[in-house]
Amino acid sequence: MQSLPGLVNEGPKFSILKLGEIFKAKVMFKNTGVTTWVPGEVVLVSQSPARNLTWMLDTVETPAKNAVAPGEFITFDFSASAPEKPGIYDFQWRLATRQQGEFGAQSELVKITVK
């Protein structure tokens, strides 16, 4: 699940932002594995392409103070900045561990028009 300003959830997901706009985003993942996610070891990383700085950040630290056991959810709630150049940009994220890199499925792709 993702939450962005003006997100349209019907058909292909999209949103429209102003140049340089600072916005709040939420990205949620469910731990469908068998390993507990430990705070500080699991992070959120930008995708499309991997580890890009389109939104002025490429990594979001784990917000949870407690571990995320299998079957539980984690929500990353963070601020990002729209690019200063008009265009259509991909907004997509994936989980990673500091030791082993990216894992699991990517979040849904959202096309964001910046103008």
Topology, pairings included?
Blueprint: E1 2-3, E2 14-17, E3 22-30, E4 42-46, E5 59-60, E6 73-81, E7 87-91, E8 93-97, E9 101-103, E10 110-114
Parallel strand pairs: 2-10
Antiparallel strand pairs: 1-3, 3-6, 4-5, 4-8, 7-10, 8-9
Q: How would you explain this protein's 3D organization?
A:
- It is a single chain.
- The protein is an all-beta fold and 115 residues long.
- It has one domain: Immunoglobulin-like (Sandwich), CATH 2.60.40.10.
- Helices cover 0% and strands 43% of the residues.
- The protein has strands at 2-3, 14-17, 22-30, 42-46, 59-60, 73-81, 87-91, 93-97, 101-103, 110-114.
- The strands form 3 sheets. The protein has a 4-stranded antiparallel beta sheet with strand order 5-4-8-9, with no helix packed on it. Strands 1-3-6 form a 3-stranded antiparallel beta sheet, with no helix packed on it. The protein has a 3-stranded mixed beta sheet with strand order 2-10-7, with no helix packed on it.
- A hairpin with a 3-residue loop joins strand 8 (93-97) and strand 9 (101-103).
- The chain is elongated.
- The model has no long low-confidence stretch (mean pLDDT 91).
CATH topology: Immunoglobulin-like
Structural domain tally: 1
Helix content: under 10%
Uncertain spans? none
For the largest beta-sheet, the strand count, sense and barrel status come to: 4 strands, antiparallel
What structural class should be given to the helix and strand makeup?
mainly beta
Mean pLDDT: 91
Assess the beta-strand content as a share of residues: 35-45%
Which homologous superfamily in CATH is the superfamily? Immunoglobulins
Architecture, CATH level 2?
A: Sandwich
Placed side by side, the strands forming the largest sheet appear as: 5-4-8-9
Q: Give me the Rg, rounded.
A: 14 Å
Q: How far from one another are the termini? A: 25 Å
